[in-house]
Write a structure and sequence with these properties.
7 helices, about 170 residues, 2 strands, about 5% strand, DinB/YfiT-like
Length: about 170
Amino acid sequence: MLGKLQKEFDSLNNLLERTLDFAGNLSNDKLHQSPKGVWSAAQIIYHLKESEKGTLMYLEKKIQSPKAEVAKGGISSKIRSFMLSRALRNYNKKFKAPSILGEMPEKPNFTEVRSEYLEVRKKMGLLLEKFDKDMLGRAYFKHPRAGRITILQTLEFLNDHLERHEDQIIERSS
């Protein structure tokens, strides 16, 4: 894996491990506690898994395209990625989950979701192995709100997304 990708992927893996460890130490009641009609910790982790799974599926398909058919990232993707990152770090801003992620189960089984999430993450690592230097500047992912962004920007998004929800998990389980 390219060094830049490895660094971002390692950071993402460390954050996921920390989040899953925290959630794994919660009681079943705390995992499924849903204050004020918002998602429980288990539902948030389910959402994160589904989001990353969707990202992986999109990237697996897009990576099969000839490089020349994949738009270059450029300044516009940098701006979109920056704006997305800022929005995700604004905890007062609410986002509606994209409908493509499907319905939210009432009480997801944490053990199953954790196992599925780790499998998705493993597959993401294998996919990242396929990226070469020429592919880094191309916008392989199309975020539902931000539009086309590069693979490094995609990993940054996944990190920001996970950080945002990690804070929610901690807050809602106290």
